[in-house]
Amino acid sequence: MTVAVVVDSAASLPAELIDQYRIVVVPMTLVIDGEPRSDSSVSLDELVGQLQTGRVTTSGPAPGDFATGIARARREADQVLVLTVSAEMSSTYATAVLASKLEGASVRVLDTRTAAGGEGLVALAAARRALAGAALDDVETTARMVMERVRLVATLDDLDHLARSGRVPNLARRATSALHVKPLFEFRDGTAHALAPAHGERAARRRIVERCLADRPAEGAAHLHVVALDAQATGRAQLLLDDVLAEVADADWFVGSFGPVMLVHVGPGVSGLAWWWEPL
């Protein structure tokens, strides 16, 4: 039995990795002034403008979109593992479950409990296992193992969007604004959690890198899988990656974008790292 991996576009995977690992991507939806649009049809520059002047929300793919993605995957595989962005952020998981019921036991759906690069790293690990010929049970086990290990930490220009969405307390937003510091957040257990802010962009970058390095297992060798991301923060992802690779030269890495859906939730000027350490 062969296995294919399907993931929603919130996973922030570059096109070359999608092709290399034969991952099927189902687009998320942006609703701009009441008009639904595929997230792939909206540039980040356009989205930032809309966030300032219009009403923008996000929506998970329709059941039919997932059904189409599953059908594509089934053309090359007998079984399918569908991975979704955190159910706390989106209705995507519930929609994927609905679509999967038409396929029976040959399709399983897993809420990754993360987003953006964290979700992407889960998808890549599962896809690698699938391409190696693993059975569906083993591919799902790999995805769950990475879910437990993956971390996502980022810095923002401000906490306005997270506060308006209720994802961090408004008190935290006012405090970071008054103190002129760089807010930091960690995405864990399906939602964003504010961390102690940093005094300036360089300090924020160092804090993120230090958290990544400190996450290395205390015993035994381990290999780092890391993704550096930004959105409307040109060059910050590369700076983060450079700092990591200066400490861990043999890491498995890629640079990506937080993407439109994440930008709606956290706002522009965001950069960060997602990672997991694989014991050897």
Quick structural summary:
The chain is 41% helix and 28% strand.
Structure description:
By secondary structure, the chain is of the alpha/beta class. It is built from eleven helices and 13 strands. Residues 169-176 have low confidence and may be disordered. It has helices at 15-20, 44-53, 63-74, 92-100, 116-131, 136-149, 160-164, 170-179, 201-214, 236-247, 259-266; strands at 3-8, 24-26, 29-32, 35-38, 56-59, 79-84, 107-111, 151-155, 182-188, 191-198, 222-231, 252-257, 270-279. Strand 3 and strand 4 (35-38) form a beta hairpin. It folds into two domains: 3-148, Rossmann fold (3-Layer(aba) Sandwich); 151-279, Hypothetical Protein Tm841, Chain: A,domain 3 (2-Layer Sandwich), CATH 3.30.1180. The radius of gyration is 18 Å and the shape is globular.
